Amino acid sequence: FNEDYSSYATERSAVRQVMDEYLAPLEAGLVDDVDSALATFLEKADNAGLATCQENYKAQWEAYCEKKGY
Fold first, then answer.
1. Contact 64, 15 (CB under 8 A)
2. Residues 15-63: pLDDT tens digits?
3. Whole-angstrom distance, CA of residue 62 vs CA of residue 42
4. Residues whose CB is less than 8 angstroms from the CB of residue 43 and which lie 6 or more positions away in sequence, other chains included
5. How far is CA 20 from CA 15, 16, 24, in A?
6. How far, in Å, are 13, 33, 46, 56 from residue 5 at the CA level?
7. Are residues 34 and 26 in contact, defined by beta-carbon separation less than 8 angstroms?
8. What one-character DSSP code corresponds to residue 48?
9. Which pLDDT value is given to residue 39?
10. In angstroms, rounded to a whole number, what is the distance separating the alpha carbons of residues 48 and 45?
11. What are the backbone dihedrals phi and psi of residue 5, each rounded to the nearest 5 degrees, phi first?
12. Which three-class secondary structure string do you get for 15-27?
């Protein structure tokens, strides 16, 4: 399965930037208030277009699985 993100490349790039800025410190244990940092990350990711990325990826995956008979 090869994801085609051309129709949501802008959102995907924005989400990647949010992940680099807000998720990486969480994963590395570099934040004092995990709950607040997680809430901020989720808000920023949502604003960046995470739902668009998820919806498009899911549609592609489901089409792939249907084509393959999974």
1. no
2. 999 999 999 999 999 999 999 999 999 999 999 999 999 999 999 999 9
3. 25
4. none
5. 9, 6, 5
6. 10, 34, 17, 8
7. yes
8. H
9. 98
10. 5
11. -100, 20
12. HHHHHHHHHHHHH
**Separation of CA 11 from chain center:** 9
Amino acid at 51: A
- With tokens 């739902």, the residue in question is 51
Q: What's the token pair of residue 52? A: 């668009």
Tokens of 34: 């995990």
What residue type is assigned to position 2 of the chain? Answer: N
DSSP state of 28: T
Count Cβ atoms below 10 Å from residue 25 Cβ, excluding itself: 13
Q: Are 53 and 12 in contact (CB under 8 A)?
A: yes
